[in-house]
Amino acid sequence: MLGLTLEQTRVYQEAKAEGREEGRKEGREERKTEMLKLTVPLLLKAGMSVEQIAQHLNVDIEAVQLAAQHNT
């Protein structure tokens, strides 16, 4: 095949780049979830409402509720 290895093809390089970006995105989501699991209970304990927490952390109310449920 024109003296190219699989790793040298454009299709392989594009697929590899897509996979790398997808992995980064998943990592960011996991870190965000972990941050919420740690932060939300503390903010609730401090007297903030779910809506206030969502607004201040710039996340959906559902994400705050989910994080709150994990700690009950």
Features of this protein?
72 residues, 0% strand, rod-shaped
At a glance:
The chain is built from 3 helices and no strands.
Q: Which structural class matches the secondary elements? A: mainly alpha
User: How widely separated are the two ends?
Assistant: 59 Å
Main beta sheet strand tally, sense and closure: none
What's the β-strand tally? Answer: 0
Helix coverage percent: over 70%
Overall, the morphology is rod-shaped
Q: Approximately what portion of the residues adopt beta-strand conformation?
A: under 5%
From the alpha-carbon coordinates, what is the Rg to the nearest angstrom? 20 Å
H-E string: HHH
**Multimer state:** single chain
By DSSP (H or I, 4+ residues per run), the number of helices equals 3
Average pLDDT number: 91
Low-confidence stretches: none
Reconstruct the topology from this structure:
Blueprint: H1 10-45, H2 50-57, H3 61-70
Helix pairs in contact: 1-3, 2-3
Model description:
This protein is mainly α. It is 75% helix and 0% strand. It has three helices and no strands. α1 packs across α3 (61-70) and α2 crosses α3. The longest helix has 36 residues, at 10-45. The protein is rod-shaped. The N and C termini lie far apart (59 Å). 7% of the residues are buried. The model has no long low-confidence stretch (mean pLDDT 91).
